Amino acid sequence: MKRFIIPVFLLGCLAACDSDDDDDQNITPTVTTQEVVNNYADLVLANYDDAWKLAKDLQAQVNAFVQNPTAKGLEDSKAAWLASRVPYLQTEAFRFYDGPIDGTEENLEGLINSWPLDEAYIDYVKEEKAPGGINYLAGVINNLKDYPTISEEVLLADNGKNGDTDVKVGYHAIEFLLWGQDLYDDSAGKRPYTDYVKGGTAQNQERRAQYLKIVTDLLVKDLEKVKAQWETAGAYRKDFTAAANVTQSLTNMMLGMGKLTKGELSGERMTVILASKDQEDEHSCFSDNTHNDYIYDEAGIYNVYLGRYKRVDGTTLDGPGIDDLVKAKSIDINAQITTGMDAATAAVKAIPAPVDQAVKNARPAMEAAIKSLRAQADLITLAGSTIGINLSIPETN
Question: Which residues share a beta bridge with 308?
Answer without folding.
Answer: 318
